[in-house]
Amino acid sequence: MHFLGREPIGDFCHHLNMSPAPLLAFLGVTFLLPDVQTLYCQWGTVEVVKNVSELPYEWTNSQTTCETGEGCRETAILIKNGPQVTLLLSKGCTMEKDQEATVTEHRAGPGLSIISYTRVCRHGFFCNDLSTTDRLSGLPTATVPGTLRCPVCFSKGDCPENPPQQICPKGHTHCYNGVLEVRGGGIATNLRVQGCMPQPGCNLLNGTQVIGPIHLSENCGPKSGNLVCKKGTLETLRDVSTFPVEWTTPWQSCEIGEGCQETVVLIVNGDQVNLVLSKGCTEAKDQEPRVTWHRAGPGLTVVSYTRVCRHGDFCNDVSNTRTFWTPPASPDARGSLRCAHCLSKDDCPENSSQQTCPAGHTHCYKGVLKLRGGGIFSNLRVQGCMPQPGCNLLNGTQVIGPIHVSEDCGPKSANLDCKKGAAEAIRDVSTFPLEWTTSWQSCEIGEGCQETVVLIVNGDQVNLVLSKGCTEAKDQEPRVTWHRAGPGLTVVSYTRVCRHGDFCNDVSNTRTFWTPPASPDARVPGTLLCPHCLSSNDCPENPPQQICPAGYSHCYNGMVRLRGGGIFSNLRVQGCMPQPGCNLLNGTQVIGPMDVSENCGPKSDTVVCHRGVMLQMGRRLHQEPVEWEASGQQDCSPGEVCQETLLLIEPAPGQQSLLVGSKGCSSPERQDGPAVSIHSNFPGILVASYVRFCSSNMCNSASSSSVLLGSILRPVPPPPGHLQCPVCVQFSGACSDDSNIITCPSGTTHCYKGSIDTRGGGLSATFSIQGCMPESSRSLLNKARKIGIFSVHESYEEENSKEKNKKTKVPRKHSGASAPYLAWVVGLGPFVALWCGGFLLPVKSIFP
Fold first, then answer.
1. What is the rounded distance in angstroms from the CA atom of residue 357 to the CA atom of residue 363?
2. pLDDT tens digits for 271-309?
3. Strand order in the sheet with 594-599
4. Strand ranges (E), 324-411
5. Is 152 strand, coil or helix?
6. CA within 20 to 30 Å of 62's CA: 99, 197, 750, 840, which one?
7. What's phi and psi for 383, nearest 5 deg?
8. Which of 161, 195, 172, 204 is nearest to 84 (CA)?
9. Gap between the Cα atoms of 187 and 181, Å rounded
10. Could you write out the DSSP letters of every residue in 737-764?
């Protein structure tokens, strides 16, 4: 689940005919707004590099409608570097207080120089009307040249290896080489700069960190191996007359090796277009920009643009539909067939409007397009004209970029699809309203969709808890509940249960039910001072103090517990209350699917851990990470800690391997951090483990087997030897007599046949193993009795290489479940549940 700031994802061209006010403003009529709360403001961003000789530079912007109480903002930044100047411009709405137009020299030059213009206004529609660089006076002029020569570069990509040189002004003694990172106000860019500076160091910004809504930082170290990509999702239905459409997106830092992807899909039906947009990081390999006509029309049309790139930060920078599609200039010849016309994320009306189909179209289409992936989870109902019968609008397409697509032309299913996700985050109040995206799930027959959002506000901090998914609860209209209204500590929730359509639990931001107070400083302060803390961990011993509102007489110190709906959280709270007692929740015990409670007693030494068991078998488990998801959470007993343990057994390269994992509570172990152990290795059987014990809430949070695989080194395979052995790893029962026979690598001298009994962490199983072994090894575990949470015991047949017919079997030293019983347990697949210490522990079991 991803939380996004308030930055709009697109400017979809609010039309001037939407009300008389913006139309008159556009025509030059100015309005004074003493009593009007809603403003129309100019909106947009500009990022452009120009020659100084091209100044002054002019621009035009789009418009937007602000929320009640918001004003219009504008910020322009000019960065001069020799003969070039970069302009960064951001306009839009803001809750910031009014500010007169201000010009600031952040670095005066000569050489590299930075000047900015900022303004916030509410005195009229479109009052943020800066349209030229004229007002940004003060750019330095040429000065006496010195003797130093420096590279000169202004680039959103890499600077060239041999950039052009410039003679620096007199008094400039150092060459600057760094990256300006610009984030906010709809701008997310890295600007690489080389030029002249009067002193050494990485301080082009002269300490400036914020200009209007734009945060700036610089980095003069070696280039990071991590890319930064544009990130965002959108689905919107528009009239074809509004195209081309433009958008801006937030950004994200990728993992090492990931690239940037962008996918745009247009589904055109007559005078309507459904636009789907997905941007972000991806593990997919690079792909040049590609335009694909999945159905070319006329009539229904489906066209997409996809790209994956790694050549530079924000390389997924397509920002409009001009790149791949413009509306047809004139309608095609019409035929005689008339079909219902509908393009909707909801149900089509019973009597949809009719359209005359293009000539040659002989059939009417009626179906549902399902789009899943890349942050998009949508059902689009379509009715329109097709040149042939059948349910094949997509022409066989199943995947577009990260989005899986399918269509269904049968009767409407009784099963709902719902948005699904659970998250908890503490944010500064200045970042609100917050937006989010979630994944999805298909519900059981009769289930509905639920969504629950809880905000716990404490001064300038807000804890947001979000839960979405399927539910058996009965329908409930959207409900906002003030469990504690504040000022001081505030608790407000939004809950809903619906069944009227797929993804009906579609609230995606906090504007629906809460916005920060317009002027929090206006409340009358009292005399009481209380500690201030909002934390999912421990509060500090000496937390900061806050002045409570007038009338508040007591300090609260407690822990709020939330359980259910995918949420398992302990939130520690210290703040101001109007009365004594442990009653922050005002008696509330249930919010949506969550049970809530509070405890103001002495601090408990218990922790909360992820819990679950994972079993997988496959042929590439040592190479390709697999997901390691916990099935639930667990309250530990006093003194216990969290644990996560992975065990990988691979009898030979390319053969079926076994991976088992466990998360949960455990007795404390002496271990400072994650530990990877290679118990046996190539050229024989690979047995490796990852173990972690930790003592903070939900710290056993590894999400894939990459925590183990990254430490396994696979040497160059030795040539085949002369020994042949059966290879096998079996979850239950003995390996069969017809196991694969392989030629062992050179360096192996005998065949291994044995088993490893594993107990603990919700698992009770015996793994049978066969494979090749080097002369130096007889045992796989080297007498190890403990691997993380697992108690292990190895039994194997000792084969004397000189007397091959003489065998000694090492006896087992414990009793356990019989092989037939274990085989029956595994046969339950994903429905299996293993008994462990008094509770049933779900097992995620995946067998190819």
1. 9
2. 999 999 999 999 999 999 999 999 998 889 999 999 999
3. 533-535, 567-577, 554-564, 594-599, 590-591
4. 334-340, 342-344, 354-358, 363-373, 376-386, 399-400, 403-408
5. coil
6. 99
7. -135, 130
8. 195
9. 10
10. TT-EEEEEETTEEEEEEEEEEEEETTEE
- The SS3 call for residue 511 is helix
Map residue 422 onto helix, strand or coil.
strand
Residue 739 pLDDT: 82
- Spatial neighbors of 171 by CB under 8 A, at least 6 apart, are 146, 198
DSSP assignment string, 660-711: EEEEEEE---S-SS-EEEEEE-TTS-EEEEEEEEE-STT-----BTHHHHTT
By C-alpha distance, which of 64, 61, 208, 54 is closest to 139? 54
The pLDDT value recorded for residue 142 is 57
Rounded to 10 degrees, the C-alpha dihedral 786/790/794/795 comes to: 140
pLDDT score at 808: 36
DSSP string spanning 43-105?
EEEEEEEEEGGGPSPB---EEEEPPTT-EEEEEEEEEEETTEEEEEEEEEEE-SPPEEEEEEE
From 776, 823, 770, 817, select the one nearest 797 (Cα to Cα): 770
The stretches in the chain having pLDDT less than 50 are 1-36, 521-522, 800-848
Q: Which two tokens stand for residue 408?
A: 């269904």
In contact, 713 and 622? CB cutoff 8 Å: no
Q: What type of residue sits at position 310?
A: R
| 169 DSSP 8-state letter | E
Q: Alpha-carbon distance 16 to 183, whole Å?
A: 30
Report helix, strand or coil for 520: helix
User: Residue 693: CB partners within 8 Å, gap ≥ 6?
Assistant: 641, 642, 643, 666, 668, 669, 671, 788
Query: Measuring CA to CA, which residue among 232, 228, 248 is closest to residue 90?
Result: 248
Distance in angstroms (rounded) separating the CA atoms of residues 304 and 289: 10
What is the predicted pLDDT for the residue at 69? 84
Give me 45's structure tokens: 């961003």
Contact 496, 477 (CB under 8 A): yes
**DSSP per-residue letters across 582-608:** S-TTTT--EETTEEEEEE-SSPP---E
Q: Over the stretch 455-478, which tens digit does the pLDDT of each residue have?
A: 999 988 999 999 999 999 999 999
Contact (CB, 8 A) for 245 and 8: no
Secondary structure class of 433 (helix, strand, coil)? coil
Amino acid at site 119: R
Tell which residue, 304, 292, 242, has the closest CA to residue 267: 304
Do 181 and 219 contact (CB within 8 A), yes or no? Answer: yes
**DSSP class of 287:** E
pLDDT tens column, 497-511: 999 888 899 999 998
Is the Cβ–Cβ distance between 303 and 328 less than 8 Å? no
Strand partners, 638: none
Task: Look up residue 831 and give its amino acid.
Answer: F
Whole-number pLDDT of residue 7: 37
Residue-wise pLDDT for 773-801, tens only, equals: 998 888 999 888 999 999 999 998 875 43
Q: Where are the domains of the chain?
A: 2-223, 229-325+335-408, 417-514+526-599, 608-846
d(CA 707, CA 709): 6
Q: For residues 214 and 297, is the Cβ–Cβ distance under 8 A?
A: no
Instruction: For the full predicted model, state whether its pTM sits above 0.70.
Output: no
Q: Which residues pair with 729 in a beta bridge?
A: 769
Residue of 119, 117, 12, 8 whose CA lies nearest to 67: 8
Helix count and strand count (H, E) for the chain = 3, 57
pLDDT at 275: 96
